[in-house]
Amino acid sequence: MRSLFLMARKIPKLPRPLSTRVHVTIKSVPPTRVGWMEQLAGRLPYFLASRRSRALSVSSVFNQALLLCAGFFIFSGVTWAQSPVSDSLPSTHFSVEDGLQPGDVSLDRFSAVAPGFSWARPANNPQVPDATMIGEASCSSCHSLETEHFTHTLHALGMEVALRADPAASTCESCHGPGSEHAKVPTKPGNIIAFTHRSATPIETQTATCLGCHQGGPRDHWLGSVHQRNDLSCSDCHNPMVKLSAEGLLAAQSINETCSTCHKDIRAQFNRRSHMPLPEGLMACADCHNPHGTLNPALMKTSTVNETCYQCHAEKRGPFLFEHAPVRDSCLNCHIPHGSNQHALLVAPVPFLCQQCHSHVRHPNDLQVPGGLADGRFPDERLIGRGCLTCHAQIHGSNHPSGPRLHK
Q1: Is residue 233 over pLDDT 90?
Q2: DSSP letter, residue 250
Q3: pTM to 2 decimals?
Q4: What are phi and psi of 300, to 5 degrees?
Q5: Both ends of the chain: CA-CA distance in Å?
């Protein structure tokens, strides 16, 4: 900074400007072309050219220089201190690993660590325990159409990278098992692991092959789940050989279409006038359910129905000073989760829903019937005016000191 101050003293006096305001334009100059000291020396006279610059003290000149330095580094677009974008991305088997640098895959330079699915091993086919590997080229020579479709999938990407890194890596045989016996007798069922219900490969072998890589996480409770007990295979919902969906290698274009292949009755409920926004694409079946298995029979992602609903409807969680017992027990006491022809997914219209529990108690509570509607034989204002909710508005619970009857 001492050299900076000496430079400032040697600057000749400039003519008095017409205005006390000095317009300074700082352009971005690559630091490799002009050093920052030269940049600073070229900008400093403009700061000293104002009317008040003649009375600047040593400390004020020093402060001006510091501000100018800070401004230079801000406006010059300094990038050497920024961390690379890859530091903020999660680690994957397709990106940089220890000992592998960017570009090594495309330039065929590999170190001790191989990327992709090189850690995958040939699947175990109990029906042909003596079969040996024959390689991807042998498979592609007959299954050209399958190979063409498979090229666009995520599995193909990982296996291709692994094969270029390690020519001994298993690709097709990672899922279908060693293919030597299948190559000898292609028409014999069971010589190769096939992922259909009509094949000779047991469902247990099919799912065990997939779980060899995809075990753990959301699939911890696959064994014993309702789908596993009904002999569903992974290939009933997924198709790893063709890219039909944006993610998940699903057997249909979306999760909702895949689930509705079997659950047609549930899909029909979303056509009712009051429904969850699943047809509109704002949610999916997997937002509430885990199709790979959970600890409850409905495959809910949480322990209870209420906890699942609270993921979106947090305002209904409470705790409330005055609770409504059926609400705290289960949301399904009053609502149908997929769709209803009543308002707000209700199982029955108000007040008939309320009178399933509250009948002929406290204030006059005559049983409401359709005859009490506006066009009925004996119209009733309690039925016409939104029923019980006209007064008991806080039906899910109240925190108001005067709300024991859920009025406020």
Answers
A1: yes
A2: B
A3: 0.66
A4: -70, 145
A5: 69
Tell me how far apart the alpha carbons of residues 283 and 272 are, in angstroms, rounded to a whole number: 16
Q: Are 160 and 120 in contact (CB under 8 A)?
A: no
> Amino acid identity of 255?
I
118, 121, 122: which is closest to 93 by C-alpha? 118
Radius of gyration of the chain, Cα coordinates, nearest whole angstrom: 36
Query: Dihedral of the CA atoms 105, 111, 117, 123 (nearest 10)?
Result: 140
Tens digits of residue pLDDT in 80-105: 344 443 344 344 444 444 454 544 54
| CB contact set of 282 (below 8 Å; sequence gap of 6+) | none
Query: Of the candidates 107, 103, 102, 109, which has an alpha carbon nearest to the alpha carbon of residue 87?
Result: 102
Task: Give the Cα separation of 87 and 105 in Å (integer).
Answer: 19
Q: Which two tokens stand for residue 179?
A: 């293919």
Of 292, 275, 276, the residue nearest 284 (C-alpha): 276
Angle (CA) 181 186 192, round 5°: 55
